[in-house]
Design a protein that fits this description.
It is a single chain. This protein is α/β, with parallel strands linked by helices. It has a domain at 6-96 and 163-237: Rossmann fold, CATH 3.40.50. Helix content is 36%, strand content 25%. The chain is built from eight helices and ten strands. It has helices spanning 48-55, 78-88, 104-114, 119-132, 148-160, 178-193, 205-208, 229-237; strands at residues 6-15, 22-32, 37-41, 63-68, 71-72, 89-92, 166-170, 197-201, 213-218, 221-226. A six-stranded mixed sheet has the order 6-7-8-3-9-10. Strands 2-1-4-5 form a four-stranded antiparallel sheet, with helices on one face. Helix 3 packs across helix 4 and helix 4 (119-132) packs across helix 5. The longest helix has 16 residues, at 178-193. It holds the Pfam family ABC_tran. Keywords: ATP-binding, Nucleotide-binding, Transport. This is ABC transporter ATP-binding protein. InterPro entries: AAA+_ATPase (IPR003593), ABC_transporter-like_ATP-bd (IPR003439), ABC_transporter-like_CS (IPR017871), ABC_transpr_LolD-like (IPR015854), MacB-like_ATP-bd (IPR017911), P-loop_NTPase (IPR027417).
Length: 242
């Protein structure tokens, strides 16, 4: 077994204080190995997106630790944490987060350019990734010239460009039709097969079927884990883990 690339150890995340106190994550532990895609499922408010944000260093745990590639996020300065996210993580959000004044190719190339890659080289890498996503024809379009589904696919291309070793996706197919959504998940699966660690938040069993492992959350706790997509579908069909 390879050394895990992502180690989430006994993480708790609490929002608010006293009567407004909400425990979003409650002593959650999870490891993700290179080449592994882990799906996280659970009802609304179960802590899925909070787990993704903590795993990606966008939110700090109240207690517990998160390590990426052997580096503990809590020990990094804000600058070093931003550098680690830029170089080694790719994020896919539900709301795209594309920059309106940049074309698709420029949006995808931006993380590489921010990391010091020359513009021409970054744009070449961006166009290659857009081509993998069947978006080459959109490379010179701006976000407001694209449909919501097209914008989401550009956002996914941005998360996959370069040598990212950890990809985090929060409902990445929410704005896509079923066929396009399956193509997007196929690309994510292929990147994981090439050695990337992947964390996918989803509410659909057919999307979780692309994962190696499915983790179920309820009230901020891990309540079940299955290693087989068919088992996940059966479990959900029976009303979910108890």
């Amino acid at each position: 077994m390879s050394t895990p690339h992502v180690v989430i150890s006994d993480v708790t995340r609490v929002h608010g204080h006293d009567e407004t106190r909400v425990v979003a994550l409650d002593h959650v532990s999870l490891e993700i190995h290179p080449g592994e895609l882990v799906a996280v499922m659970g009802p609304s408010g179960s802590g899925k997106s909070t787990l993704l944000n903590v795993a990606g260093g966008l939110d700090a745990p109240t207690s517990g630790t998160v390590s990426i590639g052997g580096e503990t996020l809590g020990s990094l300065s804000p600058r070093d944490l931003a550098k680690l996210r830029r170089r080694r993580m790719g994020f896919v959000f539900q709301d795209y987060n594309l920059i309106p004044s940049l074309t698709a190719a420029e949006n995808v190339a931006l993380p590489l350019e921010l990391d010091g890659m020359r513009a021409r080289q970054a744009r070449r890498a961006a166009r290659h990734t857009l081509d993998l996503m069947d978006l080459m024809s959109l490379s010179d379009r701006y976000p407001d010239q694209m449909s919501g589904g097209q914008q989401q696919r550009v956002a996914i291309a941005r998360a996959l460009v370069g040598s990212r070793r950890f990809v985090l996706a929060d409902e990445p197919t929410g704005a896509l039709d079923s066929h396009t959504g399956e193509e997007v998940l196929r690309v994510l699966r292929e990147r994981c097969d090439d050695g990337v660690a992947g964390l996918l938040v989803t509410h659909e069993a057919r999307h979780a079927a692309w994962a190696d492992r499915v983790v179920f959350l309820r009230d901020g706790r891990v309540v079940d884990t299955t290693g087989a997509a068919d088992d996940a579908e059966d479990l959900l069909a029976s009303g979910g883990p108890r």
